[in-house]
Structures are given as structure tokens and as C-alpha cells.
Specification:
The chain is of the alpha+beta class. It has one domain. It is 26% helix and 40% strand. It has helices at residues 21-34, 66-71, and strands spanning 7-12, 15-20, 40-49, 54-62. Strand 3 and strand 4 form a beta hairpin.
Length: 77
């Protein structure tokens, strides 16, 4: 299930990413699946629900490829 007009906002390291609409959100999940980056662990999360939207703020850990880290200029161990 997905909202008719979803908006995802990601803020991590020095990067900000905003996805608007179902096509943008679906392409993100498709990319994660195709590149084996769809393993996500939520350590801490706060959720607020209203009549018109759901907000979620949390600390997440995601398995990503070394190539992806290098392309995003993030340091990996």
C-alpha cells in the first residue's frame, strides 16, 4: 500500500534526498532490490500519525555496496 502522492525525505551525512510521487519511491525500492541494498535495520524510531500523513524519524542501518559508498563519497570500513 502506498499513498497516492508519497513524499520521502532522507537526510544523512552531508546528503539530502527528497522523492515525490509514486514513481520516485518505486524507483528507489527497485534500485535497492537490484543492487542488494534492501536489508534495513531500524535501531530507534518515532512515528507520528495524522489524518493526512505519517511521519517517521529514526536511526536506521542499511546494507549498501562499497561502490555506492564511494559514489556518495562516504567513508566505509
Amino acid at each position: 500500500m502506498m499513498s497516492m502522492d508519497p513524499r520521502y525525505v532522507f537526510k544523512y551525512a552531508d546528503s539530502d534526498l527528497t522523492l515525490n510521487g509514486q514513481d520516485g519511491v518505486k524507483s528507489l525500492y527497485r534500485f535497492w532490490a537490484e543492487t542488494n541494498q534492501s536489508i534495513i535495520y531500524v535501531e530507534e524510531e518515532e512515528i507520528a500519525v495524522s489524518d493526512h500523513c505519517v511521519f517517521s524519524i529514526g536511526i536506521l542501518h542499511q546494507q549498501v555496496s562499497g561502490k555506492s559508498l564511494k559514489e556518495n563519497r562516504l567513508l566505509a570500513h
